[in-house]
Amino acid sequence: MPDLARATDAATAIAASLGLPADDAIVLHNSNKLALRLEPCGVMARVAHVGEEVAELEVDVARQLADRGSPVAALAPPRDGPAVHVRDGFTVTLWVYYEPAAPAVAPGAYARALGRLHAGMRAVDGAFPRFTDRIAEAERVVAEPELSPGLPDDERAFLGGRLRRLHEAVEGTGREQLLHGEPHPGNLLSTHDGPLFIDLETCCRGPVEFDLAHVPTRVAEHYPGVDRELLDRCRELVLAMVAAWRWEKGDQFPDGRRFGDELLRVLRAGPPWPTLDAVVPRPVGP
């Protein structure tokens, strides 16, 4: 987020207005959205430009899941009143900050936490997009050069064709339910309260294999009842979707263009398909 100072000021001012002292703001993550640790109140603020988020949906899902004891991060107090705040062109939500716990979440515990999350999500009320809507968004980024001006023409044709084929292959497959959407290791906290998922604004309806395509291979091996053929297709699909987003104009992912190049290389190389955590850009230079 290029206007970091304004976004930080908005978050600290909102926290102070709620009686949460925020004399210091530590950047935890800064890409298309901003995550700040506010001290001394011990709150995590998530900040996005107005219109570039679905904060109301995320907060509603988080509350319903918390009520069911699902492994998700909690909203920060005070919990009565609005949880989505707008200031100076930014939308801000406030969450409990969890001190990291060692060691990292083991594959079996990760799979069990995801299974509990999926169980809780089956009882969540609301209208949600399908996972295929996200595929269509990636297809649009690739199809319209003004949205991905740096993507070479030959790669545009290749990636667009791959996304169309995969979209057709997964349409109507699997048993659909509400999903996290991106339960990769970056969205799972290892805390003293156990593993907790964050960043629920990517929720969508689809087969659990779509969620499992985002997690390390050893985690998926611990998840019961998986359609392995569908999981393999979804892994390829996730690689293609993320490749499209790394080429999107304005993408703020750190080192995003190199990741975009590497993902295209991986897709051209063919199966077996790696998971996202195993994709590392090649070093620059000789």
Task: Describe it.
This protein is α+β, with helices and mostly antiparallel strands and 286 residues long. Helix content is 41%, strand content 17%. The chain has nine helices and nine strands. Strands 1-2-3-5-4 form a five-stranded antiparallel beta sheet. The longest helix is centred in the last third of the chain and has 19 residues. It is globular, with a radius of gyration of 19 Å. The protein starts with a helix and ends in a 17-residue tail after the last helix. The relative contact order is 0.13. The model has no long low-confidence stretch (mean pLDDT 94).
Number of beta-strand segments: 9
Helix content: 40-55%
In one word, what is the shape?
globular
Structural class: alpha+beta
Strand order of the largest sheet: 1-2-3-5-4
Q: pLDDT below 50 for ≥5 consecutive residues: which ranges?
A: none
Intertermini distance: 32 Å
Q: Which value, in Å, is the CA radius of gyration?
A: 19 Å
Report the portion of residues in β strands: 15-25%
SSE series: HEEEHEEHHHEEEEHHHH
Q: What oligomeric arrangement do these chains adopt?
A: single chain
Described by strand count, sense and barrel closure, the largest sheet is: 5 strands, antiparallel
Number of helices: 9
Mean pLDDT: 94
Sequence-ordered SSE layout with sheet pairings:
Layout: H1 4-17, E1 22-30, E2 34-40, E3 43-49, H2 55-67, E4 84-87, E5 90-96, H3 107-121, H4 131-143, H5 153-170, E6 176-179, E7 188-191, E8 194-197, E9 204-207, H6 208-212, H7 217-221, H8 228-246, H9 256-269
Antiparallel strand pairs: 1-2, 2-3, 3-5, 4-5, 6-9, 7-8
